[in-house]
Amino acid sequence: DRFVTEKLMRNIIGQSKSAFSFRDIMDNKKIFLANLSKGKIGEENSTFLGLLLVPRILVAAMSRADLPPDQRKDFYLYVDEFQNFSTPDFAQILAEARKYKLNLIVANQYIAQIQDDIRNAVFGNVGTMCSFRIGADDAEYMEKQFEPVFTQRDLINLGIGEVGTRLLIDGQPTRPFSFKTDWPAIQGIPRNEKMGEIIKEISRLKYGRDGRVVESEIAVRAEF
To answer: How do beta strands 168-169 and 75-80 pair?
Structure first.
C-alpha cells in the first residue's frame, strides 16, 4: 500500500494516537489549517487526507449531542476545491450538522465537477450563495438561484471581482444583489511574515512530534 510505504503519508497516518482533538478544536474556538495542495503533497495524498479529515470533523460535530444546544459554539469549516472531497459526508453535514453548530463554506469552479447527489444537497440546503463570473452551462443552472434579479447573461458578464449574491437571514432568503471585491485594498494590508512563522513554530512545539521518534515507533509496530 503506497500510503504505508511512502514516508510522508506513513508518518501522518501511522501514529497510534492523534496529537489533537477536533472536538476540542470546535468547543474551544481553535483554528485548524490543512494545506492539501496537490502541488505540495501530490493528488492522491491530497484527496486521501481530505477524505480522512471530513468524516472526523463530522463525527466530532455529531458528538456535540451531549451538550445542550445553547452551549454548542459555532464552528466554521471552509473547504476550497471541495469537489475533490465531496463525499456523502458533505450531504450529511449540509442536512444535519447545522443543529450541532457546524457551518460549512465551500468553493469550487464548475457545477459539473460535483456529483449529482452532492449537488442536490448543496442547492437544497445552502442558504447563502455567491457567484463570480461563470460559463454558459453554469449560468443556466445558477439563474434559478438568483432570479428574478439576475439572468444568465448577467452572471456570464460579471466583471472581474464582481459577485452575485443571495443571503439567508433569519431563515429567509433575501433579494439577490451584487457587489465588488476590493482586491487591491486587500493586497495593500500590511503583513507580518515573521509572525506567521512564529505561530507555525508554536504549533509544532505544542502538537508536533519529532519525525525520528514517529518513524521509530512505526518501525517497531510494523517490524520493519
So the answer is: unpaired
